[in-house]
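Hi Prof. W.,

I finally got the LacI family transcriptional regulator prediction working! I wasn't sure whether to trim anything, so I left the full sequence exactly as given:
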Amino acid sequence: MSEKTATIEDVAQQAGVSIATVSRALHKPQLVSQSTREKVQHAIAATGYTANVMARNLRLSRSGMILLLVPDIGNPFFAEILSGIEQGASRAGYNVLIGDTQNDPEREATYAAYLRSNQADAMILLNGHLPSPLSEAPRIGTPPIVAVCERIPGSNLPTVIIDNQQAALEATRHLTQLGHARIAHIAGPAQNILTIDRVAGFNEAMAEAGLRKTASIDYSPDFGIEAGIAAARRLLRSDTPPTAFFCASDGMAIGAIVAAKELGLNVPRDISVVGFDDIHLAANYDPPLTTIRQPRRRLGEQAIALVLERLDKSRPAPDTHADNNPVIINTELIIRASTAPCTNRDPA
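And this is what came out:
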């Protein structure tokens, strides 16, 4: 004899609330108090109720899926951003599909087809550009698309970023205030928007300190450890090696420390190193890395909030927060043991 399948009415009776309240707790939890959500969750557990998600999505003419395009899922930088997005999506009743594009246009086009065929209700871009099939698509009638981490100039997409130029200025200013004059910026790919903004901040700080002539920039093909090692080797073997590095990522900064140690240099006694991102390894490296902390979970939370605003047809049209007026999340300079006052003040 089969057991009776629990219904939403059973949950409501168990929790001592109305059916409408149970529905809100499941589908729009932000509208329900914490205590009520907890009562509903306990009732669900007690009754064994399972919401018919497929039927609900069909009724609402939606897929219940939000698509994320990530250039490299193996990059630890993205982990907290993805966690912030996934938790926000889950609370609102959406699932998340992660597309690891590896910057492959064919992969990007494949994932873009999910959006165009209504297999996904919205897309969040962490790859810094629109997939080519969407770049020519009319905006009217296209499901919501939000950019996070990298602004896409001219896209007019809702965007969540940090102020990369200001963060780079603060990182470089930290080194100039320690007395460093020969500072090298180990930068990412020259055409990348993050690189452009961070180079601008570096140059601004060096000009502010009257050190424009002693600044140097070394562009790399990517933001990884190996790129940092190669750049640091080049710079440290030059006729006038730097006394400090500002690196465009923590991976590059770790690579710079590896190269410095290869050459018998002590960090920070002989050379100071500043990174960017504050990935988990930064605080646990030898020496612990001075870096710019990006609030990555907050970036993810804000990105999914913009998506959900645009998916909620019961609300007025939200502000655009386009690439020329983005949501900006504050960063923080974290000072650890990889930077110290300069012991060689000769700028020549």
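The longest strand covers residues 65-70. Does that look reasonable to you?

Thanks,
D.
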